TrEMBL record:
PANTHER family: REPLICATION PROTEIN A 14 KDA SUBUNIT A-RELATED. Keywords: Nucleus. The lineage of its organism: Eukaryota, Viridiplantae, Streptophyta, Embryophyta, Tracheophyta. This is Replication protein A 14 kDa subunit A. InterPro entries: NA-bd_OB-fold, Rfa2. The keyword Amino-acid biosynthesis does not apply. The gene is LOC104781113. Belongs to the replication factor A protein 3 family. Transmembrane segments: none annotated. It is found in: Nucleus. SUPFAM superfamilies: Nucleic acid-binding proteins.
Length: 107
């Protein structure tokens, strides 16, 4: 695991804490256009992801690692297809743990 440039686990609500910093999140794809993907975060907020388009075909769920540009947008560096079945509630709980009481366990 590369620890030289860690990224914070975030959901839609936590994104605003990390503007200008590297983050990672999972979105459910709602739509895509040239240069951007619109998705729903694991806590049901809309996030716009900009950057080089992920390699098609897109799956329903994508992990995005990049720089938080605003409270609802990310400039993507890395996209990973997470398939069409994913439990967003579990990921949302992970984000809460990684930014709360157990933050010290995460890079």
């Amino acid at each position: 695991m590369d620890t030289s440039s860690p990224s914070a686990f975030v959901n839609g609500a936590l994104l605003r804490r990390y503007i200008g910093q590297k983050v990672r999140t999972v979105i459910q794809v709602i739509g895509s256009d040239t240069g951007s993907v619109v998705g729903k975060s694991t806590d049901d907020l809309q996030i716009v992801v900009r950057g080089p388009s992920p390699t098609p075909p897109l799956t329903t769920y994508l992990e995005v690692i990049g720089i938080a540009e605003s409270d609802n947008s990310i400039r993507a560096e890395t996209w990973t297809n997470f398939g069409n079945t994913f439990d967003p509630q579990n990921y949302n709980e992970l984000c809460k743990l990684a930014n709360g009481e157990f933050k010290h366990l995460f890079i």
